[in-house]
Amino acid sequence: MSICNATSLRVDLTHGKIEKSQTPDNGIGGRTWNSVTLMNELKPGVDPLGPDNILCIGVGPLTGSELIGTCRFIASAKSPLTGILGDSGARGFFAPELRWAGYQQIVFTGASDKWAYLFIDDDKVEIRDASHLVGLDITQTTVQLQDELHDPDLQVAAIGPAGENLVRYSIISCNLARAAGRTGMGAVMGSKKLKAIVVRGSKPVTPADPERFKNTCEQFKQRIEEHDEFEARHKFGTTKIMDSLANMGVLPAYHYRTALFDDLKKVNGTALRRDHVVKAKSCYNCNIYCSRYTYTKYNEGEGPEYEAQAGFTVKCGNPDLELAVGVSNTVNRLGLDCISMGEVIAWLMECSHEELISDADIDGIDLSWGSKEALLRLPEMVAHREGIGDLLAEGTKRAAKQFGEEAQKLTVEVKGLELFSADPRGIKGYALMNAVNSRGGDHYRGEPSIELTGDEELAMKRIGNRDAAHRLKEEGKGLLVNYAEHMGILSDSMTICKNISCCMVDVIGFDFAAEAYSGLHGHDITAQQLWETCSHVSQVEREFNIREGLRPEDDTLPARFVDHPIPDGPAKGTAIDIDRMVKDYYKEKGWKNN
Amino acid sequence: MIHCELRICVGCRMCEVACSAFHFDGVTRAMSRIRVAKLENVGVEMAIACLSCQEKPCLECPTLALTVGDNGEIILDGDLCTSCEICVEECPVGAIGFYDDLPLFCDLCDGATSCVTACPSGALSYIEDHRDSSLASFLQADGNPNQKRAHYVSMQGEPIRKGWKNGLRVDS
After folding, report:
1. Nearest CA in chain A to B153
2. Do the Cβ atoms of A158 and A142 come closer than 8 Å?
3. Rounded to whole angstroms, what are the CA distances from A97 to A91, A197, B21?
4. Which among A489, A519, B126, B159 is least buried, having the fewest CB atoms inside 10 angstroms?
5. In this structure, CATH architecture of domain A7-200
6. In terms of residue numbers, what domain contains B106?
7. Which of helix, strand or coil describes residue A313?
8. SS3 of A197, please?
9. CA separation for the pair A445, A437 (Å, rounded)
């Protein structure tokens, strides 16, 4: 069934043709449309960096409305990093503007032979020359376009040098630093020689039933402000997580060698706010405004979120937070995914520590824990594919093959996608999510955050299982991950901020999403219909991945997490039986083991 | 007039959303009478509605469609307006919107000031006494309204950026 249909812009970059069409059936918006488009239209087995790949940019039925947090766009294509479904969302202000221009999806096919950007001004849509933008970083590209088009309010989604140079974990960013970060969507954009998408829109999103929708918006605002996590999220955003993970014993210090980091207080959210945050920042229409602007001796910019903060400190054994903030801003500007980049550096440092590689292998760069030289130089080398950066731009899975079997054993990726900055062994729902979700090793596909609460009543209410409320239990996690995955698909389709919908436990459910949709669009849908559409799209994504060569044995975690328990700290001794949990999950999905 | 404290503004555009929804039901940036300039490469953001300036160059309206209300707000007579956009172009800080062939002036929501209510950070307030503000130094500003607005906010942001350089942080 189709919950929502809207205008899709088809841009054939090979022939320079632009057409208006309809979003596909069987979707809600955003990710569901994109995944169905890829399933229907992408030829199996194409080169992700060739002209046959398709890049979809999708927003959703609530985007750009009065509802808080409806600020995301989802970029989807076959991933050059994993070879399966790639997609990633970005917050900020680009998505509402695209909706206001009258489009809810853009589908790019083919590839331009010259560097180009897409210009959208309501009904006027043009492919324009971008040769003068080549080599500019994301900030420079954005500012240059706003300058030359005489409109500082233009919304721009761009790639940096990393995307141009087809780094397999390059990003698409809007608002300078709001990134669609995971699975290398920037490289797909780069392979199509598309430097940026520029949009200005002026068509309103008007509720069909203003009173009903207004009421839902007010309720949502209130639910957020009354939520237990509101104050902490408001003050620290995702950077609040570092202390929580430390208390749970799941910090990935020194690339997962220990859960203890002596200098935690120098690098946590409190230190960041005290020393480097100069102001709070917000995405579109948000009362939490959890983001931050930082100012350091290296540079300034929006960020870091927790993943960059931890990836360039704790994970790399670096106690110098100012350096990490500087690196985070640089990584954003260059157009690299901070999660994958942090993992590449931390993995190299561990390889060096284990004497599996020498500094000479890495162009003489000092790879000791916390090396300032490595943190400052490697992102630049990767983005420009200079020296060893050319190999590291391929991601840890491919790069490790050059350094032998022992180095390969130290990588922390699933299906080629590098993991987040937490130890999955002590948060078993997250471990399962990383093992099975449709884009590879990633926590944000849907957050099984109920397992962090210990709230058995809530777990019972949402998924009918009390064990799932406890992060160290393996029982009930198939159910929990299936539920969280549905919430993730719903959020990626309605394009609501997942830091709200998935991370602030139970702030929104399917019933609430159905009510919001019904008020805005004027025809009633039910929670059950939304759930079923998410189930259907989850199945579509699975079939897509199997068509691209995914095997059940790929649904696992790196052996280092399965074979060895956490060595120290509050979760010391915790191991994980991932096969059992994957079976449990397959049972929920109705899948067989082959 | 609506005052925005630049130091506190987080650039969320909730004021624009509220303004747009109050006057039109629907939401889009272009329908708002308060407009946020976001200078993202220098971290400075600020909402601007009519600043009720002393100079009021918008009153150079060739058809005399504009008058000043009791609270300093500009009142448009839609029947007289010819959509020439001179007022929009003349505003030294680009505070006047233009939608559906009519200029958009902050009307203080007939006293409801919906942007102030919506502002989550407390950056916006309603200031009754507006007579002191002069925009004389911006009268010659170059560019279109969006550029003028950005220029004004950039100037307003300079002191705080100096503060950052000297170690001022969000909680200090």
Report:
1. A152
2. yes
3. 12, 12, 16
4. B159
5. 4-Layer Sandwich (3.60)
6. 2-158
7. coil
8. strand
9. 7
pLDDT tens-digit map of A265-299: 999 999 999 999 999 999 999 999 999 999 999 99
Asked whether the predicted pLDDT for residue B130 surpasses 70, the reply is no
Report which of A519, A424, A525 is spatially closest to residue A477, judged by C-alpha positions: A424
Confirm whether B76 is domain-assigned. yes
Q: Verify whether the Cβ–Cβ distance B120 to A279 is below 8 Å.
A: no
For A427-506+526-589, which CATH class?
mainly alpha
Chain B touched by A376 (CB under 8 Å): no
Structural domain spans, chain A? 7-200, 229-418, 427-506+526-589
What is the 8-class DSSP label of residue A372? H
pLDDT digits (tens, 9 = 90+) for A529-569: 999 999 999 999 999 999 999 999 999 999 999 999 999 99
Positive or negative, the Cα torsion across A144, A149, A152, A155? negative
The reply to whether B167 falls in a domain is no
Query: Vertex A59, ends A54 and A61: CA angle to 5°?
Result: 135
In a domain, B128, yes or no: yes
User: Residue A358: what are its φ and ψ, rounded to 5°?
Assistant: -110, 165
Bridge partner residues of B98 (DSSP): B103
Element (H, E) at B67: strand B66-68
Which CATH number describes the domain made up of A229-418? 1.10.569.10
Interatomic CA distance for residues A100 and B14, integer angstroms: 16
Q: What is the pLDDT of residues A57-73, one digit of tens each?
A: 999 999 999 999 999 99
User: CB distance from A66 to chain B under 8 Å?
Assistant: yes
In a domain, B168, yes or no: no
Domain count, chain B: 1
A415 touches chain B (CB under 8 A): no
E strand segments, A55-193: 55-58, 73-78, 85-90, 105-109, 116-121, 124-129, 155-158, 172-174, 178-180
Residue A265 in tokens: 């207080």
* Residue A569, CA distances (Å) to A420, A572, A574 in order: 19, 5, 10
Most A CBs within 10 Å: which of B40, B100, B149, B172, as the mutation test of the A interface?
B40
**Residue showing tokens 């449309």:** A33
- Residue A306: the pLDDT is 98
Residue contact A275–B169, C-beta within 8 A: yes
Kindly give, in sequence order, each residue whose CB lies less than 8 Å from that of residue A165, ignoring residues fewer than 6 positions away: A190, A383, A384, A385, A393
pTM: 0.98
- Does the distance separating the beta carbons of B146 and A276 come in below 8 Å? no
The neighbour count for residue B125, using CB atoms within 10 Å, is 13
